[in-house]
Design a protein that fits this description.
By secondary structure, the chain is an alpha+beta fold. It has one domain (2-19, 36-158). 24% of the residues lie in helices and 39% in strands. The strands form two sheets. It has an eight-stranded antiparallel sheet. The protein has a two-stranded antiparallel sheet with strand order 1-2. Strand 5 (72-81) and strand 6 form a beta hairpin. Helix 1 runs parallel beside helix 3 (101-116). The N and C termini lie far apart (40 Å). The model is unreliable at 7-22 (pLDDT under 50).
Length: 163
């Protein structure tokens, strides 16, 4: 069953990659979060966002709140980096419910393909990246562990210097 889902997902990625989209030149941020915001500006975007421990060593401060994206519950984590003391990344994590990892990964992948088009690269089996010529990147990560009912579906939005 897992192998069949992978084949279906790979086929959908191939089919959708034929669809041409005009990609934005630069990724400015995610939703109302714009890269380069100060800590105060970042906090002001969502008053319900709470400060939370950062998992990245690059991050000075992280905030978190929950919302619905693409019809799915998601944790949003804006990250202020130590090097700039500005907003440099936003991570969106979709919680995995039992037996939904592959289906959720496919749903999010289709949404990202529709939004960012066919100019993606894959550097590992479950890592897909969209790089923007004027700076910024989107990374889609999905890891589903068969039989364990565990997994992760994550979309990371990062500020990057011009390519």
């Amino acid at each position: 069953m897992r192998k069949a889902m992978r084949l279906i997902f790979a086929f959908l990625m191939l089919i959708l990659s034929w669809n041409t989209h005009a990609q934005e030149e630069r990724l400015e941020g995610f939703a109302n979060y714009k890269f380069g915001m100060t800590i105060e500006q970042t906090k002001a975007v969502r008053l319900d966002a709470v400060e939370t421990p950062c998992s990245s060593k690059l991050a000075l401060k992280c905030f978190e709140f929950y919302t619905i994206i693409y019809g799915e519950k998601a944790s949003i984590r804006p990250q202020i980096y130590r090097s700039t003391e500005r907003l440099e990344a936003v991570t969106v994590t979709f919680p995995i419910e039992l037996s939904r990892c592959d289906a959720l990964a496919e749903k999010i992948a289709l949404q990202l393909l529709d939004k960012y088009g066919d100019t993606f690269t894959k550097d590992k089996q479950n890592f897909t990246h969209w790089y923007f010529s004027g700076g910024g990147s989107v990374t889609f990560t999905w890891i589903c562990i068969p039989g364990a009912e565990l997994g992760a579906v994550i979309v990371s939005y990062r500020n990057r210097e011009s390519l």
